[in-house]
Amino acid sequence: MFVTWNLSRRRWRYARPDVLVLSVGKSGRTWLRVLINKYLALRFDVPFTLDDLAGADRRIPSIGYEHEHWSHHALATWHERWRGKFLVPPAILDRKRVIVIFRDPRDVVVSLYHQNQKRSQRRVECSLAEFIRLPGRGVEGIVAVMNAWRERLRNHPHCLWIRYESLRQDTAGELRRIADFLGLPPNDPAQISGAVEFASFDNMRALEARGGFNRGMLKPGDPTDPNSFKVRAGRVGGYRHQFDPADLAYLDDAVNKLAPFLAYPPTPGDGSATSPMTTDSAQPGSRPS
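User: That's the sequence. What structure does it adopt?
Assistant: Structure tokens below.
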């Protein structure tokens, strides 16, 4: 059953931020958070932290990071789902600025599997081939949630869609687009370049390894196991090396059900790198009024 209400006290958590960032798990949300917060720290000369920086300077918008419909669809109990515990009610969602970061579901599901095996307290005992077919958590569940957000936010007046692969390809350009969307364009190009350098995967991984972040969510499950790090490889198209042809065909069939706006091409038959479709010119990104 799909609901749009939220009958839990959690709904007030969604009312506080000025901006809501929505994503399926393992779609680059932590990386985006580091990028944005480092940019804001440089822009307003405040100490960097992964916490909400709005309290450090009244000019900084409050930003909330939520999995929202992903938690509702994939992780909630039946009682939590009936109450809409993880959903942002329309009356709240419609008046927020919203950023959606999305990623190729085939890469997402591989990263979710490693998260499930190495970091999660709700571990599922299964192989990767079985995991991609799990109801809710598997690739079809990821596609369903991405499509649900696209439908809900299609006509939202202040919604910015960020494709993970575009953020990887042109991190500085996408960060400038986010800063403009927030109404906080950089005063100095060094603010963008400084944030991009700080949020590089090598630097984030080094900081995670030595406990340089102030959040427990950025600690490796096992410092000797690369797959237990919150910051993993972040590769585009890396899923191709994890599956046999039958599994790849299953993944491609699921991804083919994405809304056209969110589309990704099929896995190349020659094993070459996957190049995400570029639809930046069609991505809505209205400025806040």
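Residues 106 and 251 are 6 Å apart (CA to CA).
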